[in-house]
Amino acid sequence: MAGHTTKLVRSSASSAMATTVKLAPPEEDMVLRLCALDVPWVVVPPIQRVLLFDDAGGQLPPFPFLVGSLRASLTATLARFPPLAGRVVFLPSTGDAAIDCSASYSGGGGVRFVVAEMDDADARKLAADADHDVDAFRAFTPELQTDALPAEVLAVRVTRLKGGVAVGVAVHHAVADGRSLWRFLEAWAGACRGDDAVLVAAPPTFDLPDVALPAGGEELVRSTLRKYAPHLPLANPQFARNPINMPRRTFTLAAQLIHRLKQRIVNLTTSVPSVQPTMAAPSSFVAITALTWVSFVRSKHPVTISDADDVYLLFFFDCRGRRGIDPQVSDNYFGTCITGFLVKATASELLAEDGVAVAAAALQGEVRRAAENPVSGWNWLDLFSWLPQDRLVNVSGSTRFPAYEVADFGWGAPSRTELVSVNNGQVVLIAAKGGCGGVQASVCMHPDHMDAFNAHFLNCLVD
């Protein structure tokens, strides 16, 4: 392993020292050209996620030992995930963008590993508060330079806190989606705690099959890249990286509450004749997302959203293992393999007494369409050219992401994990801590609407 020993500079406030984790050369050069599913994400800010570990039970090892374990196991894990230690590059001779995995051992590659200390940040309080300390969470994740190519793929930040530790990661969204990120974190955590079952698990695959897209082919990829990033190697002039400082609140929904919500939706369908023939019992994703959408509209009505307005919900669909794709994408595929689908309704429909059932039926129908033809939503970024952002809910993540279960590095599951890179109107879903069918839903909204959203969301769950 190249690089220097990581050092911690102590301070009463905040300090950091960065080194670079590098790998031995792979057996052969790996240059993975981005496909049409990847290239829209070149201009999207990176994924930033933080995992908080409080030391209430005294289970955390001494900080220098913890840092050493994380760094050594990261090196071992990156050997299985070489794209993460590479760089996203522009190939001017062909007009392609690609992941150059050979950069992991050259002068410009590797993973930036930052060690820091913030004495004034209380891990236990941060993990317990429903409302996020946005500035603190952002400080726990590393910046990732993606504005121009070549661009970093992954960076890590480990921060000692009062009574705990924060592990923050940032990853280029054209290289990994949420499912891929959790797969990497699961492998890293397993390597850190010496779990042989994780170490011998099926290795990830990085070559995406020749997925059939409308008017597919290499020229489609290049034209899409030129459309969204016309000034390469400058990568994202369309998406200025201004920090989103709007309030964020996290709701933890127990399985019993979710079951009650599903039953309420089923009962309400009796009053929606157009829904009855097609409405099946909703999944947890459909039920929670439908309630979120209705609560969003109610919180903005009538000041921002009027009865006659169209309102929208955008969700992302994982294409792995789907029979609607030929050839089928392996469940082990590591990359960005999601497409986007849009649901529309009128505000008056969602504001009605049976609005949550109407929302669930509309969403369920679009989920069914996505399953039948997943790649039809590959060009989701085009939607942002006309969608009214103040009437849009954007849902990311999955109720099935076992975020707490897989992130045990040897000192227990995180006490809290949150996506830091979120937008106004975004909802992030993961499986709740402790499993058993619970779901964690984190919401980012303008402060003028958050309390009204909170009231409606919770009232519907307990009624």
UniProtKB/TrEMBL annotation:
Gene3D superfamilies according to UniProt: Chloramphenicol acetyltransferase-like domain (3.30.559.10)
Highest rank taxon of the organism: Eukaryota
Keywords assigned by UniProt, alphabetized: Acyltransferase, Transferase
InterPro entries linked to this entry: CAT-like_dom_sf (IPR023213), Plant_metabolite_acyltrans (IPR051504)
Molecular function GO labels: acyltransferase activity, transferring groups other than amino-acyl groups
PANTHER family recorded: PTHR31625
Listed name of the protein: Anthocyanin 5-aromatic acyltransferase
